[in-house]
DNA sequence: TTGTTAAGCGGAGGCTGCCTCCGTATCTTC
DNA sequence: GAAGATACGGAGGCAGCCTCCGCTTAACAA
């Protein structure tokens, strides 16, 4: 078989992916979304496979680990969330923009029961697979945070990662009756804390600030 | 059998608990502490039983659920933590006292790998069993918080429960390389946010404050 | 079309952990 | 020492995880 230069349709001489494989992947994803949103992140993978109408083996071939499946299911949602940040970049008040973004995050979490676990995955432990979500969210947060810092309204020693973790932490209590209002309240406090303090504090706090959050190598 | 008033040794006419039962309970607790601290809260209960040198049935009789065991294991630690709060009540600067308490909490979590799960249990979901830990911690937090509020240094619309949840949330990312410094930084920001803002904000934020955290009925 | 072959399918089966149940052993009490 | 209450332990049933491999099917070439 001769490779024809310039033939850029599918640049590599690889077989087209099988139609059934593509279809099944989609079926699994759809089923997983339903099952995870209903039963939480602990839900049985066999249940997902059954709902999708595929064998358990098929599920595992497409998504070798539970986390893979998770990431795939919530990728779209994460993307949505970061797009909202994009929009907010044009808001007048940068602090308010950040605040609003965080608040919208709470709402997001509220509607998707599995979302917290997805965020956990994105924010937590430096495994490989969650890279996408983590990057997206970090960038989204960063763009809002940076603006506020540049405007001189916020302290500069909190990294986007830090903020993300704080956000996540505050949403983590998401299976209590009134968790939403709690989370919103806590986030407000946090954002207030992020503001550059208008006057010197009465007592200089010597709790030494950590050096500006070392960016994770990546 | 005649009940003798004033005989206050064991006030009720019940059998003395069996010696082996008492011993086994202790063995299980000790084993659980080791296993949980090493393997995290997911660790196998059968492993605990094996380590304790008792049958799995014995373990379950003493601690019908995993949570029961958890609570028992970390009860002492929780107590210690709240005692520290007690000491701090005499500190001069109430804001600083609170800050220090939270920070010490981070250290605590750092040394006990299972501690976060224990806190989660205490802070999360209103099941029955965690009442003790939750109460202890709420009171500890409350006493410090109240003092700061009374001194006019902190806003009054955050309940001890809220604060506890925030603390927990920030510790939740406890399996990352640098999580400790992150958590400390985040807590500092949060405490700053809690302070009564010295001057009116440049732009009145209309994000309406939730009504002063309704105390959970209990 | 048809044949070839890589890719994908599915579920049996091995494994681990959860939890219950009950015959047996041990301790307390008298 | 005997009786009776209490606790012990682990077999066994169940569920979920994940792997492995014989069978099926879609893509491609001719």
From TrEMBL, chains A, B:
- Output the Gene Ontology terms for molecular function: DNA-binding transcription factor activity; transcription cis-regulatory region binding
DNA-binding positions: 44-63
User: Keyword NADP, does the record have it?
Assistant: no
PROSITE patterns the record matches: HTH_TETR_2 (PS50977)
**Residue span(s) of domain HTH tetR-type:** 22-81
Per the record, the domain of life is Bacteria
Q: Which UniProt keyword terms apply here?
A: DNA-binding, Transcription, Transcription regulation
Report what the protein is called: TetR/AcrR family transcriptional regulator
- Tell me what organism the protein belongs to: Bradyrhizobium cytisi
Lineage, uppermost ranks:
Bacteria, Pseudomonadati, Pseudomonadota, Alphaproteobacteria, Hyphomicrobiales
């Amino acid at each position: 078989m001769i490779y024809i230069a310039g033939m850029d349709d599918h640049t590599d001489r690889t077989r087209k992916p099988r139609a059934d494989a593509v279809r099944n992947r989609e079926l699994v994803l759809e089923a997983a979304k339903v099952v995870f949103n209903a039963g939480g992140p602990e839900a049985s993978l066999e249940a997902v496979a059954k709902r999708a109408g595929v064998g358990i083996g098929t599920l595992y071939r497409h998504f070798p680990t539970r986390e893979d499946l998770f990431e795939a299911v919530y990728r779209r949602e994460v993307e949505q969330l970061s797009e909202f940040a994009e929009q907010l970049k044009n808001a007048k008040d940068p602090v308010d923009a950040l605040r609003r973004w965080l608040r919208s995050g709470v709402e997001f979490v509220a509607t998707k029961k599995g979302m917290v676990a997805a965020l956990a995955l994105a924010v937590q432990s430096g495994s490989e697979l969650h890279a996408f979500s983590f990057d997206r969210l970090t960038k989204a947060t960063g763009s809002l945070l940076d603006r506020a810092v540049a405007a001189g309204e916020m302290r500069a020693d909190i990294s986007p990662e830090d903020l993300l973790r704080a956000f996540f932490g505050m949403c983590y209590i998401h299976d209590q009756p009134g968790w939403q209002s709690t989370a919103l309240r806590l986030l407000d406090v946090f954002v207030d804390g992020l503001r550059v303090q208008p006057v010197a504090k009465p007592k200089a706090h010597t709790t030494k600030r950590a050096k500006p959050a070392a960016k994770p190598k990546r």
